[in-house]
Amino acid sequence: MADKKEMTSVASSSNSGVAAGAGNNRGESVVMDCGRRRSSCGYCKSGSRSSISHGLWANSLTVDDYQALLDRGWRRSGCFLYKPEMESTCCPSYTIRLKAGAFVPTKEQRRVLKRMERFLEGLSNKQPEELTDAQTTSKTLGSSSCKESSIAGSKEYLPIYHEENNHSEQFIRYFSEQIDNAVQTCAERGEISSDVQLPKASIKEVAPAKRKLLVEGAEDLLFTSNISFQIVAVLRRSKKDHRDSSKDGVPANLQSAQLTPNDVAQKLANCLNQVAVSSGFAIKACNGHINFYSSGKQLNPGNVPGRDKALVQSCTKKRGSTMSSGNIEVKRRKLEIRLKRSSFDPEEYSLYRRYQIRVHNDEPDDVSESSYNRFLVDTPLAYVPPTAGDGVPPCGFGSFHQQYLIDGKLVAVGVVDILPKCLSSKYLFWDPDLAFLSLGKYSALQEIRWVRENELHCPSLQYYYMGYYIHSCNKMRYKAAYSPSELLCPLRYTWVPFEIAKPLLDRKPYVVLSDFTTQNGGSLPSSVPDSYVEEQPDDHAPGGSNDIFVHADEDMTEYDSEDCDGEEDTVPSGNMSDDLEDGDVGNVLIGLTRVRLRFKDVQHAFDPRDRQHVTTQLQRYMRAVGRELSGQMVYSLS
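^ thats the sequence. predicted structure below, dont judge the formating
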């Protein structure tokens, strides 16, 4: 290897030495090359293919350098950085990002926010294990952390929740229960056959525009139900021959089968008389329908017991009727969102352990504190405080954990990196008892909102990076639902709109995306020649053994892989001369014990064989990180 005395002499005499951290008040990046790595693929079921990536170990990393690495297809797992070799891996992974300011939520994403709001209002039918107040005391986050409280859907770009609609749904649910009770009462009285499975009631709100088309006086019609038609249809389909007869000798099931929707509606309306009195609404049977009118009567709270009392009071108040209502007694849950710098938290680890075991079926012995720290706590990113100058968000730059708490209980944690241009989402884990809330989708929407808000403090911070998009894995395609998104071209590192990339990826897993865009960001040609599509064998099936949930990254797998350096190197070695040209590996920044030097200044300290070996390594490294980064990040030889 190199002569250390000679290298020290070169370091002390060379004028091209680079002082550590010189010219960069955010520190320096120091990386070690881990070479090419092969690991089993978690996204396809093919045993003959595997994932190949280039790996770096980062002792330290500036946020600016990591941003540049992201824009060349790199990701991190703890302090380990990796980049898939797209042309070699079985499931090509494209970096995907979204410009937060252009985001428009889909109907499904709006529904997720509405579901959370209903849950916070105490209106959800699904109830998790009781949320306790044992953790209502906030933890001290330190002077460098940010706190944020949020109510889902309350921001201007997600105006999906309307209080009036919410109370209408309360009313619909309440009267549906009362109609079901009335059906049961009629069955017990023998007015409707009880020998068949009767349908559950459904109620619809009558739109104001439709009321005007109805008969005079229909302006007060608010809700209607067609349950009578459904019951009659069920009775007529029933062919059971009961021997029990009514008093006039007609079999009970036949008597019920002769009922008309008008008959059933009238019977149910009669049973609902008491409900009408207590609710202050008029309930009438009309042409087989059960209609609910705003009668203008005063609500009598005393006749509505317990939970129904608060329900009717809150509904009638928000319907804008002239009825009097008391205080609403529905207990609202409190949601808090806190942003804290990455550090070990026993409560977070406990939640992570439950999540991995119950959702990903991990063995308990595999979910250790050490593996958790390596994966989600350890970070090479140097923290940049908000006092560092203009263009830094209030929380600073670095690695963070975004905590979601409901009534003081931790229910989800999003692990993110906040960088000069983006919020990069790394992983999310959540309470398995709250799976019905779709916390992965909900947290993604909150992180997009965070980017929009903090762009005011940091104009360069405009993007939301969602990790890797794998078109060949159905379970990873959800990321494209956050639109308008872009994919990173694996060859030229330019961003290509997803609508251009999708038809290409539908044909082949690996495509040089920038081949199909013009310099002005044009669109896909009407016909795609086969010669433009990189060939990739179609011998693997989409869908992975790793059931990666919404908003989780694929980099959770600990790298249990074999070194591929023994294989034939894909970078041609060529004929290396002692005098390397400017811009070649001679400008790679080499880290010695206390100094940083360009490789061209220390290459003579190596014997010819070692110099050839190091040069080949540096060529591969420079191709992976790019010429610019190889000249500013420190390549550690120790």
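The mean pLDDT is 76.
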